[in-house]
């Protein structure tokens, strides 16, 4: 073995060792971090205090920062203490449905990790503006309350919100910022008093389900921008006072379910509606392409739709898209549906289990 070979023999193992040791240190660091995260998850707890007929929450005897899910549903709580909410630093799910709450604490804005908030079945008239600080929120359920409005800038702040359920309230309008909830997949605003929807709906690029049914005599029109909701799969506008559907609906290439019953519709006409969703889509597609539809007030929306090339490609080669679940139009008398007896049936049931003592949480 010559001198050169001898040098190579000693140098190469040293170089390999030099590279391996840092990699081993990195692996050990990553393992420690993973173990630390696992231990933290094990330390976090789920607290279920539902159905205990609690009227108030005594002073907690446990570190609230260890809770990742807190269920206080189906009780008789009239308020949630500010001090309690402020210390739920790691909570991801908070369920206070079916209580007697008139409001939510302002400290709810401290819940930076909150992903699911369920406040349905209470008597809440407005949501605190601080809820906009819950930027990790993905699902907000405020059904069956007394909401007359939502925070004006809610759409600018809750950028991760995927599901917004506010049915069975007293909402007259949705804030214009709602159209900026770009992550939103489900919007349920049925059984309210909506007069109109935000005009610039095209920003809801991920919206799959839109339900604004049963606003009865209040909702008379649907914005033309609805034709730009490319991801929309289900649209329910039943039991309103809509006479004309916007032609832009013909551009909803992914639409599979359209519910329009209970409206005094004149366009599209009954004979078209009775033939099913694919015929309605073709009818609207034809109207939006017809020369007499180029009205000034629609040109801006037309330009957007043409730019996206939606309706020019939708029925290429004469093929019709497959649509299922179409509910045939039938203008029915809604007096029975709007009667106090029927509306009373829509109230959430407040079922309470027998009295139990809260375990491991409150002293």
Task: List descriptors.
single chain; 363 residues; alpha/beta; Leucine-rich repeat, LRR (right-handed beta-alpha superhelix); 2 domains; ten-stranded parallel sheet; 7 helices; 10 strands; globular; disordered C terminus; repeat
Describe the structure.
Strands 1-2-3-4-5-6-7-8-9-10 form a ten-stranded parallel sheet. Strand 5 (139-141), helix 3 (154-157) and strand 6 form a beta-alpha-beta unit. The chain folds into two domains: 36-145 and 354-363, Ribonuclease Inhibitor (Leucine-rich repeat, LRR (right-handed beta-alpha superhelix)); 185-347, Leucine-rich repeat, LRR (right-handed beta-alpha superhelix), CATH 3.80.10. It has seven helices and ten strands. Mean pLDDT is 80; it is low at 4-11, 13-18 and 309-363. It is an alpha/beta fold. Helix content is 24%, strand content 9%. It is globular, with a radius of gyration of 28 Å.
């Amino acid at each position: 073995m010559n001198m050169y070979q001898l040098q190579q023999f000693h140098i190469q193992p040293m170089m390999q060792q030099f590279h391996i040791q840092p990699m081993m240190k990195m692996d050990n660091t990553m393992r420690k971090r993973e173990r630390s995260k696992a231990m933290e998850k094990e330390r976090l707890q789920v607290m279920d205090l539902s159905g205990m007929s609690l009227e108030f929450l005594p002073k907690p005897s446990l570190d609230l920062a260890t809770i990742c899910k807190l269920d206080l549903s189906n009780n008789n709580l009239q308020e949630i203490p500010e001090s309690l909410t402020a210390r739920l630093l790691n909570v991801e799910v908070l369920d206070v449905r079916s209580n007697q709450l008139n409001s939510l604490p302002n400290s709810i804005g401290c819940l930076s990790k909150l992903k699911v908030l369920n406040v349905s079945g209470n008597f809440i008239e407005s949501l605190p503006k601080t809820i906009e600080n819950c930027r990790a929120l993905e699902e907000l359920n405020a059904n069956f309350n007394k909401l007359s409005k939502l925070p004006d800038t809610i759409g600018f702040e809750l950028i991760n919100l995927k599901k917004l359920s506010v049915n069975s309230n007293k909402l007259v309008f949705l804030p214009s910022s709602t159209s900026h909830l770009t992550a939103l997949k489900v919007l349920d605003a049925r059984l309210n008093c909506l007069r109109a929807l935000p005009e610039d709906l095209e920003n809801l690029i991920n919206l799959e389900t839109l339900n604004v049914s049963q606003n009865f005599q209040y909702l008379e029109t649907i914005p033309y921008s609805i034709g730009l909701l490319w991801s929309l799969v289900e649209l329910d506008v039943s039991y309103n006072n809509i006479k004309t559907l916007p032609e832009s609906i013909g551009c909803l290439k992914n639409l599979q379910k359209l519910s329009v019953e209970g409206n005094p519709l004149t366009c599209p006409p009954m004979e078209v509606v009775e033939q099913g969703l694919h015929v309605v889509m073709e009818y609207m597609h034809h109207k939006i392409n017809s020369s007499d539809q180029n009205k000034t007030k629609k040109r801006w929306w037309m330009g957007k739709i043409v730019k996206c090339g939606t309706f020019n490609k939708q029925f290429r080669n004469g093929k019709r898209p497959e649509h299922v679940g179409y509910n045939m139009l039938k203008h029915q008398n809604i007096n029975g549906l709007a009667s106090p007896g029927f509306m009373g049936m829509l109230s959430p049931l407040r079922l309470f289990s027998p009295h139990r003592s809260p375990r491991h949480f409150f002293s």
